């Protein structure tokens, strides 16, 4: 199976590889540069999902399956949370999964919302991501993305339940 990820970010590509490995699904996985057509720091669940879908659609080119990965923040019950979304696309249908989410410290939210900074700007250790810094490496950005990809791939592999 040929799979193209709508990103050249090695953390995103490795997360997709980890998900296919976890599902024991052989795939030739590579990345390509595409745009999400959403803001650099998505600030709603709708925008996060739209960004992942846009990336997957644009990456679908001479492959069996394409993948879009998007992270961002959303607001619910007076708090802001970070999450990741993965959309797999087979040329017709999206198969999607999301990651665990975590609360973003309020002082950081203010800068994201009013200064239009990205969450990653506040943390050293870009490889770990904000979640890696906040959990002291217990869950890294790659782990978070892998979980979302595993869920999307589970939906794809069980599409007969539609």
Structure report:
The protein is α/β, with parallel strands linked by helices and 162 residues long. It has one domain (2-161): Maf protein (Alpha-Beta Complex), CATH 3.90.950. Helix content is 38%, strand content 23%. Strands 1, 2, 3, 4, 5 and 6 form a six-stranded mixed sheet that branches. Strand 3 (65-76) and strand 4 form a beta hairpin. The protein is globular.
In short, what is this structure?
About 40% of the residues lie in helices and about 25% in strands.
Supply database-style keywords.
alpha/beta; six-stranded mixed beta sheet; 38% helix; 162 residues; 6 strands; Maf protein
Count of individual helical segments: 5
Number of separate strands: 6
Spatial separation of the terminal alpha carbons: 22 Å
Major sheet summary line = 6 strands, mixed
CATH class: Alpha Beta
CATH level-3 fold name? Maf protein
Question: What's the topology here?
Answer:
Blueprint: E1 2-5, H1 10-22, E2 28-31, H2 45-59, E3 65-76, E4 79-89, E5 94-98, E6 102-103, H3 106-115, H4 129-134, H5 141-157
Parallel strand pairs: 1-2, 1-3
Antiparallel strand pairs: 3-4, 4-5, 4-6
Helix pairs in contact: 1-5
């Amino acid at each position: 199976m040929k799979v193209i990820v709508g990103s050249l970010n090695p953390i995103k590509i490795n997360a997709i590889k980890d998900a296919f490995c976890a599902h024991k699904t052989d795939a030739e996985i590579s990345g390509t540069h595409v745009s999400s057509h959403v803001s650099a720091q998505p600030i709603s669940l709708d925008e996060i999902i739209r960004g992942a879908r846009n990336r997957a659609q644009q990456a679908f080119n001479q492959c069996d399956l394409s993948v879009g990965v998007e992270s961002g923040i959303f607001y619910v019950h007076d708090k802001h949370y970070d999450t990741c979304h993965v959309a797999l696309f087979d040329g017709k249908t999206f198969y999607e999964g999301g990651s665990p989410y975590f609360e973003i410290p309020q002082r950081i939210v203010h800068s994201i919302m009013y200064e239009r900074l990205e969450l990653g700007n506040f943390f050293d250790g870009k490889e770990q991501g904000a979640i890696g810094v906040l959990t002291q490496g217990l869950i890294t950005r790659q782990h978070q993305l892998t979980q979302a990809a595993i869920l999307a791939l589970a939906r794809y592999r069980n599409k007969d339940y539609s």
